[in-house]
Amino acid sequence: MASQIKTEIEANGKNLQYWKDIWRYRALAIELAKRDITVRYKQTIIGLGWSIINPIINMLIMSFIFGTVAHLSSDGDAPYTVMVYAGTIPWTLFSRNILLASGSFLSSVGIMKKVYFPRIILPVSTSISTLIDSAISFFVYLLILLISFFSSGFVPSIRILLVPLFSMLPIALGFFIGLFLAPLNIKHRDLNQAIPFLITIGQYVTPVAYSFTVAVNAVPEKIRFIYELNPVAGVVNAFRWCIISTNEFHWPSFISALVFIAVFVPLGIKRFRKGERTFIDLV
Amino acid sequence: MAIKMEDNRPVILKATGIGKKYIIRHKKKYPIDGTRRDKMKYRLSPQIKEDFWALKDINFEVREGERVAIIGRNGAGKSTLLKLISRITEPTEGRITYYGKVAAMLEVGTGFNIELTGRENVYLNGAILGLSREEIDARFDDIVEFSEVGRFIDTPVKRYSSGMLVRLAFSVASTLDPDILIIDEVLSVGDMRFREKCLKRMGEIANKGKTILCVSHIMNVVRGLCDRAIVLEDGKMIYDGDVEEAIKIYNGIHKEAKHGHYDYDIWNRPQGYYCDRLVIKSLDLLETEDCIYAWNEPIKFKFHVEALREESNVSLRVTFRRDGGGPVSTVFFEPFIDFKEGSSADIYVTVNSHNLAPGDYKAALTLSKGAPYDLHDNIDSIDPDGFLFTVMNVGSENEINGMRDDSARLWSESWGHSRIVDASVEAVIK
Asked: B298 is in which domain, residue-wise?
């Protein structure tokens, strides 16, 4: 008995137990992520192939519209496709994380009505699945880089080794903002409609399909600093900086991203914890 | 309170002054006779919030190895209590303290995904119930064996029969090895034989000295499994102690509650019903003392409907469910009434019980516009527990077609929940 863990449940109680529980339930996060990915490709013929086709098609469309049709210039010596793909990886990580984390209460009501586990496991598991998708997507990118080396002699920067580190930034940014938004989604479902819509807009405001330098020069000087402080641009730029050796590190947007993360980590966790306590009474 | 004083087993769970408040939102009465302006105001007026205490002042201690049943009728707060202990939601006040791991079998098969194979589901479900991968590995063979799923373990569960699915789900849940096990009505699953197997497994768990909290409507399960019972009524604890005594008290309030009259004014409606067109206000069971019907006896009831708007072609359906189980059957009434705005009506319904097997039932009422089986325009619904009644199992000596009906006395659960009365048999001897 004495060795057994004591649990106290009370209204608005603070417990360290929660954070220990997250560790105890780590198997659940992994199993849920596995389920997400397995179920998605069940009964498809090419299965995981869809994870590869999606980003490639996306890259081709954007490269065609912005590079070939609109004649926007790429970064340095990088082929347009290489630059676009380096933008879609962090953007996808960010947007999927914000979307899934903010919807995590609603997506699994069924389980949550029946069983206790630290609810934060749900967004963590979806985050893991986005990471796996992006890892696959990154391997495809390595192939694309190989092809560009032979076709146009493009050599990626040695900084490519920093990619795992810089992939964490868009995840953190999307994840914690998503946590912050999640409780708002319970009572008023408007957000559920608004977020996908805002993500679509965001994709064009953020230099995903085009180069940051091109965009900054096109924005009027007076409001340029707003554009430069876009935190998502910060993580996208940093990711591209890992690949394209001629790119300079853009500090303002990067610092803005770090500030956003620093603010939303405590804020997001706090809001999420508050929401998870009683949300089951509201749905 | 008959708690054994000499008990010196350590306290494993302690509830101190717990209460759970829900906020119910509803609108005030529609101004039927009001001016147009009043009606406009009504539409714009905010909903009234009302506090509702599902549980209040609950205090009890559970010692290690005790097997406690929580009984009470629907809405007495049993499930809320289990939800609080299993941390699905938080109490509004008070504190629960426990030692060790709690696992709840509130509903087996939580998180089962039909696209995944049996094996994948075992791992997923196990993880949901708080097991680590190694723990599941260790009991995997046991789970498969107990579930009798055998070689179908690598088949997607959507190809399983419902019985197989339930067995597999129960098997995962039953290998849990917590310090406190919470069981809620899981025993109403599967066929008779498997249910007995489950009960046996529960008994084994109980005999291992495990602490058990159990909610069930089946008193024999309570008797077999538990050595102490808590009776809840309207969110308060009215008894704590001996099982037989508790069952007596429960039967008392159960009957009393069944007695007659239901007020649906603040009854919870299913999602999507706003009580803004027709409102079922109340219901009375007629010509019965205790809401217990002999087989073949007609169930008569009337209910009162108020119309807030004009509605024509209103139809009715009444769905019968086993108390604590699935639907048994539904009776449909084609459109039979038109309402003018502000009018009201008493509707009398008679249903013969001869198709219902002996047992406890709850009936749900739904008013809809147009055909009663069209699900698209339901107006008001009291679902799932509109009213409760029992079809008697023993002592009925009814006759049908001149034959005495023995089946009513001997009805076995494994024969199902409805009785087919129109059938014939003929033997041609050669």
From this structure: 261-396+401-410
Query: A261 at the B interface (CB within 8 A)?
Result: no
Contact criterion met (CB < 8 Å) for B110 and A24? no
pLDDT digits (tens, 9 = 90+) for B251-265: 776 555 546 788 777
Task: Report how many domains make up chain B.
Answer: 2
Which chain A residue is nearest to residue B99, measuring alpha carbons? Answer: A6
Tokens describing residue A17: 């137990």
Left (φ > 0), alpha (ψ -120 to 50) or beta: where does B130 sit? left
Give me the residue from A11, A31, A277 closest to B124, CB to CB: A31
Q: Which of B223, B257, B291 is the last residue of a domain?
A: B257
Pair B271, B374 in one domain: yes
Q: State how far the Cα of B62 lies from the Cα of B14, in Å rounded to an integer.
A: 6
Which of the residues in chain A have pLDDT under 50?
1-2
Could you report the predicted ipTM of this complex, rounded to two decimals? 0.80
Residues B48 and B182 grouped into a single domain? yes
B340 and B231 both lie in a single domain: no
What is the CATH number for B289? Answer: 2.70.50.60
Q: What is the pLDDT of residue B402?
A: 43
Q: Which residue has the higher pLDDT, A173 or B411?
A: A173
Which residues in chain A have their CB less than 8 angstroms from residue B94's CB?
10-11
- For residues B311 and B231, membership in a common domain is answered with no
The burial of B309, by beta-carbon neighbours within 10 Å (0-12 exposed, 13-18 middle, 19 or more buried), is given as middle
Is the Cβ pair B94, A116 closer than 8 Å?
A: no
- C-alpha B355/C-alpha B359 separation (Å) is 12
The three-class DSSP label of residue B360 is: strand
> Per residue in A95-120, pLDDT tens?
999 999 998 888 888 888 888 888 99
